Amino acid sequence: MTSRKRLTPEESRSSALEAARALLIETGPQSVTLKAVAARIGRTHANLLHHFGSASGLQKALAEHLAKTVCETIIEAVRASRAGLGSAREVVDLAFDAFDREGAGALTSWMLLTGNEDALNPIISTIHELVDEIAPEEAETHGDDMHVHKDTLSLVLLALGDALIGAALAKSLGLPRDTARERAAANLEASMAEHYQN
């Protein structure tokens, strides 16, 4: 009989969040339970209860974990784009992938359906911090333009909508699956061109 490796609280929490993320992507948000995550990482339900307090606490921590991971990736792409090393489409793809393949869209809809809207606060605040880092002058002045904030709002709403119903809607309209991404990239490119002309 082998004994389980003793993990630090940070390691235990991190492995639980990675397992929760994997469950979210593989089988959907309804499978992100304390019991399922505990089974996946070989820990007890009580151990996870100690770290997260409840299933709702686990989901909120997962939302925060996803938001930080996703936003770090997006900000790298934005920086590359600003330095001439990337494109608006790459930023769009990262945002859309975050909500689709990375599970943020499924988690968002699950939180809304289960009445756990406060679990979305980490996603919303992290996106807001991302935008403020990209456009600090907007964060300071809060001018009427709020150019980057408006672009972010459009991009996130498009990415979320596409993650939830994009495939079915594109199919029913006879459009290619990546039409929403193309539109988002075109909108972002046009907005950036307009902003840099002023």
UniProtKB/TrEMBL annotation:
Stated name of the protein: TetR/AcrR family transcriptional regulator
InterPro entries, per database record: Homeodomain-like_sf (IPR009057), HTH_TetR (IPR001647)
DNA-binding annotation, residue ranges on this chain: 33-52
The keyword Transmembrane helix appears for this protein: no
Origin superkingdom: Bacteria
Domain HTH tetR-type: 10-70
Record keywords: DNA-binding
Coiled-coil portions: none
Pfam families attached to this UniProt entry: TetR_N (PF00440)
